[in-house]
Amino acid sequence: MAKAKLMDFEKALELFEPVFGLEVHVELNTETKMFSAAPNNFGAAPNTNLTPVCLGLPGSLPVVNEQAIRYSISLGLALGCSIAESSRFARKNYFYPDMAKNYQISQYDEPIAYEGEVEVELASGRIINIPIERAHMEEDAGKLTHVGGSTGRIQGAEYSMVDYNRAGVPLVEIVTHPVFGGEHDTPEICKMYVSVIRDIVLGLGISDARMERGNLRCDANVSLRPRGSETLGTRTETKNVNSLRSVERAVRYEIQRQAQILADGGSITQETRHWHEDTGETSAGRPKSDADDYRYFPEPDLLPVTPTLELIEELRAALPEAPTVRYRRLKGEWGFTDLEFQDIQNSGLLTEVSATVAAGATPQAARKWWTGEIARVANQQGVDSNSLVSAENVAALAKLVEAGTLTDKLARQVLEGVIAGEGAPQEVVDARGLAVVSDDGALIAAIDEALAAQPDVLEKIRDGKVQAAGAVIGAVMKAMRGQADAARVRELVLERAKA
């Protein structure tokens, strides 16, 4: 793949105005699929979560999942949308190699929810209201695995394998109107919007929202228009971006790529594009189809969805706090400064920090681990932090540090083991023998050895040079591979000096 020329981001924003729209796909965590009784769970052996409906076999008929309807209405309400008195399903016709019946049951002109708004707050404190056009129900497609190429993508692959387990999983697609005025903040706005959507669905309990598993993924539409122009530019759609970090990077990349093409006198092709996490680039997919190309028509085997006002009000009454209200409450409860709380929001880890506090960690400890060491490892691996470790394990790790069982240095080694799949923190501590040594007998033996090598230390301490104890403490820590209780070592050394 030839490397595209990129314009400097600041220069691109001088010449062009970015316009974006986002399509966020949320897989619902119902027990069964959208239109069949097949199990809806992640990680099953390929092609085992299937029924004749999933495979589109002759004579099989879809039946709507009632729980998926309730979840979709709840999500629409949380997005500030109006709920349609009547909505219907349609067949979206396209060549779907990962849909056995070769069409997708979706919603087109009559979605379940429409015209809402989501508030997003940036690190600068700037508030952006993202207009929602619609949230509609559909079924997910299956999963293709491309074999034989160097990248895992279809380009260069020798053959592809299809797993229909995901085909038919309940999905809500949230589509924004075109968003103007993002300017230099556009990449951050896109990331934070997806983060807010993730917080909403987790708060509702309707999705696992694991981006690395595809439970929540984003299609990012980006176009540029010359400064002063009222005509929208040609957009590209970067498909299935599956981490918050990647959403921001992909949008920034497309702004720079498109700006360079336009500045060179070229034109933008309306197409889908693939995001490559390893190289930080997008590549061309297929020419982007418009709605007419999908030949939508009403799904003849399903009746319209007509929720009662009583159901809608029941679901409205059960809504959790709006994200911005929750953010302000948690900030106060945790006693964080604006900068500390923004640090969490910018990292997209509020849900993880909150769950870690709920599991027994202090807010400061939860923030430190998630935005510090865990975020560092996640950046190294190019994944989202929540894919590495659970909130429960982070809380357990923080408790071990608080109890004095681990130092921060040892805790990082334990975290490494947890991420590597060696078990829960205490199991890693036991298996690797990483607990802090507080036993006076073992510490005194190590102190005596260190003092034998530095016999003048005790005299220096007696002469008032207490800082001389640091040399002994350092030697003891080194001898005990960082596992000595440094505070207790200091106490014992000072006691020796008084003797």
UniProtKB/TrEMBL annotation:
Record GO terms (molecular function): ATP binding; glutaminyl-tRNA synthase (glutamine-hydrolyzing) activity; transferase activity
Sequence intervals crossing the membrane: none
Residue span(s) of domain Asn/Gln amidotransferase: 351-497
PROSITE patterns in UniProt: GATB
Region (Disordered): 268-292
Purpose: Allows the formation of correctly charged Asn-tRNA(Asn) or Gln-tRNA(Gln) through the transamidation of misacylated Asp-tRNA(Asn) or Glu-tRNA(Gln) in organisms which lack either or both of asparaginyl-tRNA or glutaminyl-tRNA synthetases. The reaction takes place in the presence of glutamine and ATP through an activated phospho-Asp-tRNA(Asn) or phospho-Glu-tRNA(Gln).
Example of a GO biological process term: glutaminyl-tRNAGln biosynthesis via transamidation
Name of a matching Pfam family: GatB_N
Gene encoding the protein: gatB
Gene3D superfamilies recorded: 1.10.10.410
Descriptive protein name: Aspartyl/glutamyl-tRNA(Asn/Gln) amidotransferase subunit B
EC number: 6.3.5.-
